[in-house]
Design a protein that fits this description.
With 384 residues, the protein is an alpha/beta fold. It has helices at 10-22, 34-43, 74-80, 93-109, 127-138, 144-150, 206-230, 236-240, 243-264, 268-282, 291-295, 298-301, 309-317, 323-334, 341-353, 355-363, 369-383; strands at residues 2-6, 26-31, 45-51, 56-62, 64-68, 83-86, 116-120, 151-154, 156-159, 175-178, 182-186, 200-203. It has two domains: 2-204, Rossmann fold; 208-383, N-(1-d-carboxylethyl)-l-norvaline Dehydrogenase, domain 2. Strands 5-2-1-6-7-8 form a six-stranded parallel β-sheet, with helices on both faces. It has a three-stranded mixed β-sheet with strand order 4-3-10. Helix 9 runs antiparallel to helix 10 and helix 14 packs across helix 17 (369-383). The longest helix has 25 residues, at 206-230.
Length: 384
């Protein structure tokens, strides 16, 4: 069995590639980094170091190879594999869609009726459904029926913390990751037989799991990063050890949690236990996760459909408290990093147009006057 994975970075090698390899697949990575590609092809394997407070072990990932994204052979590979996965960053999916569309045209034209399932493992809501929409836009209409019958686009939620692509050890392919991985997929979107992949959980209510992860882990992660950077911390572990930051992050996650509990009828005790579990993962002393990595791309994170605004808007809808979520939003607007172009963009926008117009533009909100006023008040506290 062969699989094709776009993106040989943290999640790609550390979680998806490992699980596919452990499940008996030959994994072909697609990437733009020729140095990384050459290293994978030379060794044909790499090590993953799984760490937690109670465990530290190394596992070897075998049956791997890699190919450059510009290699024309990708088209034929797409036509022959049974599963394609991506972990490239949501903004790159449009470029990937062009390649996938070409591969599907070749697959259809050569008369292959073998089902193919595509799982986009991006940190975004229903990324596979989005990818399907873009792929369809590149396919001539006569191929749409074939895609509908034989090509599955499977939405998922994937969760694991991997601080950096390369370790500081001599083995440049080694990844250090937390000993926790969660990969939940929509069981209803597969075409043909569902592949037997280790630790992949099949659910039919995938949206609730996607939002549970996005608006718990990612919400808390982002708020801890922005608040921590303001206080001069460098890693998530050091920031979350600050009692004041810990309290703010936990309360923001609980505010978001109240929304999720109401929306999806989650068990309250179970969800608050999930929050505590996520916070304990932030404290993992073996994962020196840089706050600047977590905080990057604040424009994306401040969209109304994203991890900061959406749970707060949900709280407004249900008439719940959102005071701690607002502190996180204000901190994201305040964040500046000369190496993060989006943070610089926010600063320029605020200086030119003022904080109110900037919030409306970045978030794409057009209402919620009291909510915007509350954000501005918190932002001004940070300025003082």
């Amino acid at each position: 069995m062969e699989s094709l994975h776009f993106g040989a970075g943290n999640i790609g090698r550390g979680v998806i590639g490992k699980l596919l390899s452990d499940s008996g697949f030959n994994v072909i990575f697609v990437d733009i980094n020729q140095f990384l590609i050459d290293a994978i092809n030379y060794h044909k394997k790499y090590n993953v170091r799984l760490v937690s407070e109670y465990q530290d072990k190394i596992e070897c990932v075998k049956n791997v190879s890699a190919i450059h994204i510009d290699n024309p052979n990708i088209i034929k590979i797409i036509a022959n594999v049974t599963i394609i996965t991506t972990a490239v960053g949501f903004n790159i999916l449009d470029k990937i869609a062009i390649i996938i569309a070409k591969g599907l045209i070749y697959k259809m034209d050569t008369g292959s009726n073998k089902p193919l399932n595509i799982i986009s493992c991006e940190n975004k809501f229903l990324a596979s459904s989005y990818l399907k929409k873009v792929v369809l836009s590149y396919l001539p209409i006569q191929y749409h029926g074939y895609l509908k019958k034989y090509i599955g686009f499977v939405d998922c939620s994937i969760d694991s913390i991997i601080p950096s692509i390369y370790s500081k050890e001599k083995d440049m392919l080694l990844l250090i990751i937390e000993n926790f991985q969660e990969w939940i997929v929509n069981s209803k979107q597969f075409k043909g037989d569902i592949p037997n992949i280790k630790d992949m959980k099949l659910k039919n209510n995938i949206i609730s799991y996607i939002e549970r992860k996005l608006f718990t882990l990612n919400t808390g992660h982002a708020i801890a990063a922005y608040l921590g950077l303001i206080q001069g911390y460098e890693t998530i572990q050091s920031a979350i050890q600050d009692h004041h930051i810990y309290k703010l992050v936990k309360n923001a996650m609980r505010e978001s949690g109240e929304v999720l509990i109401k929306k999806y009828n989650f068990n309250k005790n179970d969800h608050f236990s999930y929050i505590n579990h996520v916070l304990s993962r932030f404290k993992n002393p073996f994962l020196l996760d840089p706050l600047k990595r977590i905080a990057r791309n604040p424009v994306q994170k401040l969209d109304k459909e994203e991890r900061l605004f959406k749970p707060a808007l949900g709280a407004i809808k249900y008439n719940f408290s959102y005071s701690y979520l607002i502190k996180g939003i204000a901190a994201a607007l305040y964040y500046r990093n000369e190496n993060d172009l989006e943070s610089i963009q926010i600063g320029i926008m605020i200086k030119k147009y003022g904080i109110k117009k900037s919030i409306l533009t970045i978030s794409r909100l057009d209402n919620y006057a009291d909510f915007i006023s509350d954000i501005i008040a918190e932002y001004n506290v940070l300025l003082s």
